[in-house]
């Protein structure tokens, strides 16, 4: 890092204190790496192609492009007035905080280990991020959540959860919606719902005015670079979000491509992708279970697998050096020794397996030679690989 003059005139010290303290989201792109197998951001490994149909770049775009809204509503099984389109699900996370939480007064609540942007967005706005650890099976700890709801305006529930891959028990989401009625918004993050479409809670909107559902084109639709996501909620909640959204959140090309991705043809391509990913995930899971360095592979309803390794950081480093970039989850609460692997093409999955196979496990790892006399010299013992 370059030296900055640390005197009182530094612009950093002019920034809001919570911003000065803020550690920005460690996105896969920011973390870098020099790989040819990118399995750290839950992207789809291949790029769909599009051609622009609109060239009216002299004009401002529609704030809520009608065709995108119409098609997404039809796809999600909701009414157009129950859909807000924005710049990725990350913007949905942020809009909810901006619309519902007073800095220094209200809090959001979420259950680690989970997606990192809930806390980053809250910190950015100076809103308290309260946490209630998930239970050992990574389900909601409902009694503890109930105890912690005082002052909470917004609860984020990620299902399937990133990075653990499990669905949250629907009965628990319902209980949470009952407890929070009239008090807080429950935002169910369904970024990966295309990989388990039967699990969506979109059908519950009629019962819960305080339910918001977050969706994205970044995962199963293979459009992470497009930056397009959705909030599903009842019209009253959507109207509130419309007050705080930017006047032109989506550029003309984004709306154009999003509409194409949501055509009949786009939807069937997405469903084929989901089938391929699911196949590869099942294959990779079986292969991982046969690797010595893998302790446990968790079941997943999404496009990634979380696994616990006997020596996660050296596994991570070893694959990194071979150009295979995974996501290190070791620092997340409850996830020591865990790495997250995005499901890539079959060849990419094969590369992962080929790299993991030779790595030692706990049982086969190097043992210190039995030392009972001076005939074993320390020098040779210290040359054993670690
Ligand atoms: C990827 C992801 C998002 C962000 O999606 P974008 O539409 O790309 O902003 C939101 N939530 C979860 C759980 C994710 O994994």
TrEMBL record:
Catalytic activity annotation: L-histidinol phosphate + 2-oxoglutarate = 3-(imidazol-4-yl)-2-oxopropyl phosphate + L-glutamate
Record key words, sorted: Amino-acid biosynthesis, Aminotransferase, Histidine biosynthesis, Pyridoxal phosphate, Transferase
Domain Aminotransferase class I/classII large: from-to ranges: 38-356
Modified residues (N6-(pyridoxal phosphate)lysine): 219
Keyword Transferase included in the entry's annotation: yes
Binding partners and assembly: Homodimer.
Family: Belongs to the class-II pyridoxal-phosphate-dependent aminotransferase family. Histidinol-phosphate aminotransferase subfamily.
Protein name in the entry: Histidinol-phosphate aminotransferase
Organism expressing this protein natively: Rouxiella silvae
Native organism taxonomy: Bacteria, Pseudomonadati, Pseudomonadota, Gammaproteobacteria, Enterobacterales
Gene name for this UniProt entry: hisC
């Amino acid at each position: 890092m370059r030296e900055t003059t640390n005197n009182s005139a530094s612009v950093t010290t002019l920034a809001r204190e919570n911003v000065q303290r803020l550690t920005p989201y460690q996105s896969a792109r920011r973390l870098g790496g020099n790989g040819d197998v990118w399995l750290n951001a839950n992207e789809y490994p291949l790029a769909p192609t599009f051609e622009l149909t609109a060239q009216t770049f002299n004009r401002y775009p529609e704030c809520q492009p009608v065709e995108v809204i119409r098609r997404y509503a039809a796809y999600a099984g909701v009414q157009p007035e129950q859909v807000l389109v924005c710049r990725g699900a990350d913007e949905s996370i942020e809009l909810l905080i901006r619309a519902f939480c007073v800095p220094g007064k209200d809090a959001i609540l979420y259950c680690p280990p989970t997606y990192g942007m809930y806390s980053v967005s809250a910190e950015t706005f100076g809103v308290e991020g309260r946490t209630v650890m998930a239970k050992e099976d990574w389900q909601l700890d409902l009694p503890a959540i109930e105890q912690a709801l005082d002052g909470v305006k917004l609860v984020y529930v990620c299902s399937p959860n990133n990075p653990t891959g499990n669905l949250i028990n629907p009965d628990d989401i319902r209980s949470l919606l009952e407890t929070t009625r009239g008090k807080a918004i429950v935002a169910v993050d369904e970024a990966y719902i295309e990989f388990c479409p039967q699990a969506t809670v979109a059908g519950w909107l009629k019962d819960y005015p305080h339910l918001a559902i977050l969706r994205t084109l970044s995962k199963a639709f293979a459009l992470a670079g497009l930056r397009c996501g959705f909030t599903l909620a009842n019209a009253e909640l959507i109207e509130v979000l419309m007050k705080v959204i930017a006047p032109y959140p989506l550029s003309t090309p984004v709306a154009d491509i999003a509409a194409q991705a949501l055509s009949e043809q786009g939807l069937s391509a997405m469903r084929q992708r989901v089938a391929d990913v699911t196949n590869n995930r099942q294959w990779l899971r079986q292969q991982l279970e046969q690797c010595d360095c893998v302790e446990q592979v968790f079941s997943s309803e999404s496009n990634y697998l979380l696994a616990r390794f006997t020596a996660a950081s050296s596994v991570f480093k070893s694959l990194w050096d071979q150009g295979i970039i995974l996501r290190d989850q070791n620092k997340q609460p409850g996830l020591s020794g865990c790495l997250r692997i995005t499901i890539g093409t079959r060849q990419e999955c094969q590369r992962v397996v080929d790299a993991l196979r030779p790595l030692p496990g706990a049982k086969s790892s190097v043992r210190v030679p039995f030392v009972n006399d001076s005939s074993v010299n320390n020098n040779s013992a210290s040359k054993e690989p670690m």
